[in-house]
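Hi R.,

As promised on Friday, here is the backbone we talked about, encoded as structure tokens. Could you run it through your design pipeline when you get a chance and send me back a sequence?
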């Protein structure tokens, strides 16, 4: 009996090993933002066993999803080879390409335009960069796309902006924390993305004064290593990404609400 159990255990181990060796894993990052709709909704479908990408990449392919607050964190994960692909803002993607001398990252597809902007406190007559002299503006993370846009907008308006201060203070703040600070009036404005921008309007009576309608908010990037070693798989992923035409915006909002 003991011998039978021994051989059964060995058989099960080999079966598991064969399954494991035959499985291809792709590690993909995204943010809990509507501007990352393809990743956001596909992650939810993967959880339900209805994987959008898995069905189009072939049998034996598994997607491991990773959530980041903003671009710099996702780029660090690419550098650390913790992920293969990620949805990310154009600003951090360009910074990462420059930082690595083009050796670590490649942009392989566009993902979303628009969906970001600047919301200010109700009752305030802020209109131009000059109106923010001495004020505090929250952005998702230092060096992310909205942080770059915010600093550039203020500088173009004649304000001196440094990493720690200047004529106006830009405060990198995680998206989920921005709403609370805005309600408490501890910041004068927030430059962020959806769904947070709409939440500032609906839950805190924020007023949007700048809308980035035509800005490339989100792109899809790959590590050079993944692209070199699994180019065919990367190509299939891009094709599935392009086919991911999410028609129901409510599905994106619902999916976003389920992530921290």
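Update: got your reply. Pasting your designed sequence below so it's all in one thread:
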């Amino acid at each position: 009996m003991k011998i039978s159990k021994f051989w059964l255990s060995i058989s099960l181990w080999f079966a598991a090993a064969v399954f494991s060796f035959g499985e291809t894993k792709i590690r993909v990052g995204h943010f809990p933002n509507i501007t990352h709709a393809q990743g956001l909704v596909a992650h939810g479908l993967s959880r339900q066993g209805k994987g959008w990408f898995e069905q189009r990449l072939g049998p034996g392919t598994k997607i491991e999803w990773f959530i980041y607050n903003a671009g710099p964190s996702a780029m660090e994960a690419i550098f650390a080879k913790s992920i293969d692909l990620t949805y990310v803002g154009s600003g951090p993607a360009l910074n990462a390409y420059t930082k690595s001398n083009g050796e670590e990252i490649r942009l392989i597809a566009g993902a979303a335009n628009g969906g970001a902007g600047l919301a200010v406190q109700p009752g305030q007559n802020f209109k131009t960069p000059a109106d923010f002299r001495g004020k505090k503006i929250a952005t998702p993370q230092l060096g992310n796309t909205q942080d770059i846009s915010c600093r550039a907008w203020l500088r173009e308006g004649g304000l001196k902006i440094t990493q720690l201060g200047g004529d106006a203070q830009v405060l990198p703040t995680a998206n989920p924390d921005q709403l609370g600070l805005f309600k408490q009036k501890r910041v004068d404005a927030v430059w962020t993305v959806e769904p947070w921008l709409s939440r500032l309007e609906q839950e805190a009576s924020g007023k949007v004064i700048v809308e980035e309608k035509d800005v490339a908010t989100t792109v899809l990037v790959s590590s050079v290593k993944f692209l070199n070693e699994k180019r065919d798989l990367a190509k299939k992923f891009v094709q599935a990404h392009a086919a991911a035409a999410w028609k129901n915006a409510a599905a994106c909002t619902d999916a976003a609400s389920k992530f921290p």
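One thing I noticed while checking it: The beta strands are 24-30, 61-67, 85-88, 105-113, 116-120, 136-139, 169-172, 189-193, 207-211, 216-223.

Thanks again,
M.
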